[in-house]
């Protein structure tokens, strides 16, 4: 179906333009006119920018937001959080997973994310046995994406071990486990559904080098892996191989633009340069990384070296595209005691630099034409509410910086995903039913 959207101002690949008409067909942009006048009855918005791809999500974790913020008996850490997460996921059935994913995806759309890479590892029933359809839970995510209108790249996760050296998995991990053959069946099922599909070895903890070799050829989409998020993981990797996780991947795994290294928090200067040179995307999840106490990725050095990046909501503890970009910059400000550290040239808007970078890297990491208001790309547009007093007299980069650094997701008025308006007045059009289903489930999970 052909649709048009008229924008008084829009951020196109070569900069801000006036009188922009975006025509799309079947979800993709087929024409971009500038200097046009609005037609009567045509959808019209004040200011539009490309929707941001969310390159890393575990949708089910949205429903445990707020459940792990209480001090435990010993020192809390990423690893104690993970125990809470394992206990939480043990209670989720297919209907719960689908309802939570729909809620998370609607939340993402309202927050400025128009596509998501779902890093999906919750494959099996609570006792570890597969569902009758081995791709049951993966397909529930596809259904939730279709229902909400968010674009999706499915990343079925290969998970087989508790830690480096092929250790057997723990009971808390049994819902994640496959051998390469059964994993291939999940990948094939998603491909048969016509989804964009990549592969995701969970981490070097969960997949051995031989397993990596077996699973990488199963799909031609992107390859995502968690790497070097925690200091303990770096130490354990050194003990196992004599190398750090990112160093090992760069040396042994053929890291190239098909790859996205999630977190990559703990890097030596040589790894930072090596990752930048590889053309892979650093998948940064600044809000979750702060929540989990991971550490600070060296973004300023990495971007100065030409490194590619995108942002992800990971645990979905707080879903906000502007918030991720802000936290990315703020971590550098706090660590380096400077300001405007992630824009590269004098006078450049930091919000604009972050948005543009995250759109480009996010599109690469999702393996789809996303993140640009240009022909052939998905018609994903985030429109800011310019009537707010904070926006008075502001447009273009100033409006963008006000969104990113001040207002956050409250600045978003409308969102178009695949040419369809799915967020109106800041609310997803399916909110009523999605919220009712989600609240009922959440009540049961907290009881
Ligand atoms: C995950 N999340 O797979 O959900 C992980 C925790 C792990 C983050 N790393 C589990 N943020 O890494 O073992
Ligand atoms: Zn993750």
Can you describe what's shown?
The chain is α/β, with parallel strands linked by helices. The chain has two domains: 2-50 and 374-433, Urease, subunit C, domain 1 (Roll), CATH 2.30.40.10; 52-366, TIM Barrel (Alpha-Beta Barrel), CATH 3.20.20.140. It has helices at 78-89, 94-110, 136-148, 180-192, 209-215, 231-241, 245-252, 269-278, 286-292, 299-304, 321-336, 350-366, 396-407, 431-446; strands at residues 2-12, 15-25, 28-33, 43-50, 52-57, 113-120, 151-158, 196-197, 200-201, 223-227, 259-263, 281-284, 308-311, 381-384, 412-417, 420-424, 427-428. A hairpin with a 2-residue loop joins strand 16 (420-424) and strand 17 (427-428). Helix 11 crosses helix 12 (350-366).
Summarize the structure.
With 447 residues, this protein is α/β, with parallel strands linked by helices.
Mean pLDDT equals 98
Oligomer: single chain
What are the segments in which pLDDT stays under 50 over at least 5 consecutive residues?
none
CATH classification, class level of the largest domain: Alpha Beta
Radius of gyration: 21 Å
Q: Which structural class is indicated by helix and strand composition?
A: alpha/beta
Total helical elements: 14
Helix amount, in percent? 25-40%
Number of DSSP strand runs = 17
């Amino acid at each position: 179906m052909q649709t048009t959207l008229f924008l008084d101002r829009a951020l196109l690949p070569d900069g801000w333009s006036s009188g922009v008409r975006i025509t799309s067909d079947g979800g993709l942009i087929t024409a971009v006119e500038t200097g046009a006048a609005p037609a009567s009855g045509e959808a019209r918005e004040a200011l539009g920018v490309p929707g941001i791809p969310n390159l890393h999500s575990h949708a089910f974790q949205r429903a445990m937001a707020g459940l792990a913020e209480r001090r435990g008996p010993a020192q809390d850490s990423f690893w104690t959080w993970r125990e809470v997460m394992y206990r939480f996921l043990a209670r989720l059935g297919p209907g719960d997973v689908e309802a939570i994913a729909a809620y998370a995806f609607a939340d993402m759309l309202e927050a400025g994310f128009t596509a998501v890479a779902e890093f999906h590892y919750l494959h099996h029933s609570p006792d570890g046995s597969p569902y009758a359809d081995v791709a049951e839970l993966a397909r529930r995510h596809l259904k939730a994406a279709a229902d909400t209108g968010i674009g999706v790249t499915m990343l079925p996760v290969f998970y087989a071990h508790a830690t480096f050296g092929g250790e057997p998995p723990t009971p808390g991990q049994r819902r994640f486990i496959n051998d390469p053959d059964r994993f291939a069946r999940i990948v094939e099922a998603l491909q048969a559904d016509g989804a964009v599909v990549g592969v995701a070895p969970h981490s070097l903890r969960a997949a051995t080098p031989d397993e990596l070799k077996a699973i990488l050829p199963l799909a031609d989409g992107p390859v995502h892996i968690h790497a070097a998020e925690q200091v303990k993981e770096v130490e354990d990797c050194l003990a196992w191989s004599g190398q750090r996780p990112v160093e090992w991947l760069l040396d042994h795994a053929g890291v190239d633009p098909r790859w996205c290294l999630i977190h990559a928090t703990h890097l030596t200067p040589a790894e930072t340069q090596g990752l930048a040179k590889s053309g892979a995307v650093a998948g940064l999840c600044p809000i979750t990384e702060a929540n989990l106490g991971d550490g600070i990725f060296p973004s300023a050095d990495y971007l100065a070296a030409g490194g590619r990046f995108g942002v992800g909501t990971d645990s979905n503890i707080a879903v906000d595209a502007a918030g991720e970009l802000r936290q990315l910059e703020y971590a550098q400000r706090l660590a380096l005691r400077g300001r405007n550290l992630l824009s590269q040239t004098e006078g450049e808007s930091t919000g604009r630099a972050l948005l543009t970078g995250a759109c480009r890297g996010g599109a690469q990491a999702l393996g789809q034409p996303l993140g640009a208001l240009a022909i052939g790309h998905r018609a994903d547009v985030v429109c800011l509410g310019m009537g707010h007093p904070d926006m008075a007299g502001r447009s273009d980069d100033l409006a963008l910086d006000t969104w990113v650094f001040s207002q956050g997701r409250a600045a978003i008025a409308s969102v178009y995903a695949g040419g369809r308006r799915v967020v109106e007045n800041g609310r997803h059009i399916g909110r009523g039913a999605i919220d009712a289903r989600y609240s009922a489930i959440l009540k049961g999970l907290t009881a």
